[in-house]
Amino acid sequence: MSDHRAQSFQRTLGYYFMINLISILNPSAAQAVHKVVEHHVAHHPPEAWVTYLFTALLVGLIFCLAFEEKIHAQKSVIASSFALMGLALGTFFDILPFGPEAASKGAAPMINHFGETLFHPVFIQGVDWGVIAIIFGASLFVDITSKSGLFTWIALKLTKSSGGNPLKLLWAYGVMTVVFSAVLNNVTAMIIVGSLSVVSLEKLSRRDLLLGFLLIEGLLTNVGGLLTLISSVPNIIVGTAAGISFGRFFVIAAPFVLVTTAVTLWLGAKMFKITGFESEHQEVEGRRLVAQFDESEGIESRGFFIFSSVMTICFVFTIALASMIPGLNKLGMAYVALLFAGIMMLKFKSSASEFYKSIDWDLLGFFVALFAFINVLEHAHVLALIGQGLSHIINLGETLGGASLLVSASVFSSVTDNIPLAAMLAKILNAQQTAGDSSLWWSVIFGANLGGNITPIGSASTLVAVTMMHKHKLPMSFSGFVIRAVPFAIVQIILAIIYVSLFV
Prior knowledge:
Strand order of the largest sheet: 1-2
Order of helices and strands: HHHHEEHHHHHHHHHHHHHHHHHHH
Shape: globular
Helix content: over 70%
C-alpha cells in the first residue's frame, strides 16, 4: 500500500472513530458528520495506477474488437466481457456509486410518490438509453414501413431519375444521407438510406457496389451531423457552452459540409470504382433496365402505402422539430422513434413478434455494454486523464493548438464516446475563459464528429452501416473498415483543419 493510500485509509478510520464517539454524545451531530465523511470518501479520486489499469482495459477492448473475427466472438460478447470486468474492478477499487452514497458520487437519485429515494444499478444508469431507444424504434419503424412498399417506391423513383447510372445514384443517395443526418439523427438516416441502397442496387443487379455505397453513406452521416446545432449531441454541448446560435452555427458549418460531401463522394467513387456509363450502349441498356422497373410492384395495399407515406413525413418533421414541440422537447427524439414504431405496429398487432426478429440484438447489446463500460472509465478518471493531456494542447494557441486539438479530438472520439469527450473539452475551454468566437470551439466540434469516421465504433451510424453489411453477407471486419475509412477520414480532417484555421 502506498503512503498516500495508507494516509487516506488512516484518515478514514479516524473519521469513523470520531463518528462513533460523537454518536454517543450527540446522535444528531453524528449524522451531519457522517454525511461529510461520505462526501470526502466518495470524491476521493482513484490512484494513478488504477486509472492506468482501466486505460489498459480500454486499449484491450479496442484490440479485441479489431480482431473480432480472429477470436470468433460477436461485438456484444466482447463488449459485455469488458463491461463485466470493468464493473467488478470498479467495485473492488470502490470508485463506483452504490446505495445511499451514490448521489455524492454523481448519480442522479429518483424520488417516488411515497418519498422513497430510488437508485438505478450502476450498470443501468451509465447506459444512454436514448440512443438504444432510437435504434430500436427507428429499426422497427423502417422495417414495418418497408412492408408498405414505400422505400421500394422511393428507391425505384430515384433509380429511374438516374437512368440506371450508378454514379448518379451514388450522388443522389449521398446528398440524401447528409440532409437526413442534419434534420434527423445519424442512426435514423443510415437506416433509411441504407435500406434504399440495398433495394436499388439489387434491382439494378449491381450488388457488387453495395459495400461501397453503405460505407460512403456511413461516413457521410457524420459529415451531415455537422450541418446544424441540433444535428448531433456534441454540437449541442459545445455550441451551447460557446454561446453559438443556431443561425451562426449553420452559416459557419454549411460551406464545410458542402465541400466535404462533394470530396467524399468523388473519392468514394474513385476508390470503389463506381463509374457512370462509358458508352451509348451502356446508357441505352441502363435506361432499358430501369424502364422495366415497376415502382408499384411492392405495394400490396394502396391504403397502407398512403398511410406509411404520411407517417414517414410526419416522423421526419416530428423528430427534426422535437426539441421545439412542447412536451416532446422533454421526452426527446427517442420517444418519437418509439411512438411512431408503436403506431406502425398497430397495423400488424397480431404478428408483432415477427418484426422483433428483424431487430439486430447484437448491435443493441453491444451499445448497452459499451455505455456501461465507458461509465466505469469515467469514474476511473480515464476520460479525465485524456482531458488533462488535451489541456496542454489547447495552450499552444489558436492555430497550432486548434489543429492539434482537432486531430486529438478526432482520434479519441474514434475509440470512445464523443459525448463525454465533448462535454469534458467544453468544460476545459470554459475553465480557461475561451472566447465564444474562438476557433478552438470549432476544433472540438469538427474533431468530435469526424472522428467517428476512423473506426466502426467511433459513431453509432458507422456501426449500423457495418451491421447492415454483415446482414447482407458483405465481408467487413473492424480492421477492414479502418483500412477503407482512414483515407476518407484523413482527407476530411485535413479539410477541417484548413477550414477552421482560415475561415472560422
